Amino acid sequence: MSTMVSPAVSAGYHHYNDYYYPSGDSIIRVENTLFKIHKFPLVHNSAVFASMFELPSGDGNPEGLSDELPIVLEGETAEDFRAVVKYIYAPPIQVQIQSIPAAALPEMISVARFSHKYAMDHWRSWALKVIGLHVTNLDLLPKEYLQPLYSLFILLEVGPSTRARILKRWCDMVEKNNLSIIPVLAAADAGEDREGLVAVYCIEIRRWEKGASTSAQTLTRNGVSQIHFQRMHSGHTSLTLAWNRFRTHEPPAMFQGTHCAGGGSAEYHTTRCIPYSRTQWVEAIVDAERVYPHVTQIASRLSHVGKRLQKNNMDASTLKMATCFDAVIKRFNYHVQEPDTSLENHFFPCELDSTESLRRKQSVRFSRTLEVQLVPSTGH
Ligand SMILES: [Zn+2]
């Protein structure tokens, strides 16, 4: 009698042998897999299981006592539940945070995801601690873990800075190996992660700049939605305009002075300081474009310009000239601190929350100042 194949098993379900304990008091089915385990550790670790097992059994034929009438966990994967059961039953030495190898990361992701949903707070924080140890150096992490880790951090709404690092690493891999942006774009989109989306848009823009004209067509064929293209195009245009404001043959007027900040005469200022600052400026802009060839690197370019101006000012032939140019550098540094360099604003200009709206106003004010002051410079 007991050797007969049970109807449940013959119906396509199978026992998970490692976790089908003869002494178990609860049969749980996840997908096609039947687990026979003990109620106590589940109830003890999870508020959700506790209330699940408290439900009245009703007609005297309670769920969970046979393969034919198991407790069914809908929407879960057998893999996630297996990982939870494995560690709940593991001896203490095997759950020491320091002793879990990187190869167990998929199990940790399973435990974190399942315990988040089933209010198993202890196990959730345990899994996150193990994950935390393994993501300190992402260079050592096998690349196939980046996507599930990123999605986990989105789902659990934890560790925004770690999540951003994981996404950055993932984007770096995609760009370096010339992989499709679609998986990373889809993950950032699903997580409503604007910073992440911007990072992906920037990869695509750099590909355009390198002449990869076919990639847009490929993306459309693969179902990338129109909104992403619109943002990429408008972001690219906005960044290019922002950079071109600096890319003049003169230092923008706001960075020049009408009188000599080094105490020189008007003539000295016109014949010495202004040509000097013009040369310094053009060289710094050209050098920034050489070191950071893409417009998506606008923040790095501006910071490079500032540093280079500062460094090269040591070459000024007189103290007066150096002091005068120092004032130009100070004004430049002050103005590029304005959040106009925030990449996100270039891609999401129309959907502003209150903080962004404020930032936007500031950057508009900055642009206006620039326009107005540029006018007198045409007299040179
Ligand atoms: Zn001067």
Automatic annotation (TrEMBL):
Q: Which CDD domains match?
A: BTB_POZ_ZBTB_KLHL-like
UniProt xrefs under Pfam families:
BTB
Q: Which InterPro entries match?
A: BTB/POZ_dom (IPR000210), SKP1/BTB/POZ_sf (IPR011333)
Q: Gene3D superfamilies attached here?
A: Potassium Channel Kv1.1, Chain A
Domain BTB intervals: 24-97
Q: What is this protein called?
A: BTB domain-containing protein
Q: Origin organism of this chain? A: Mycena sanguinolenta
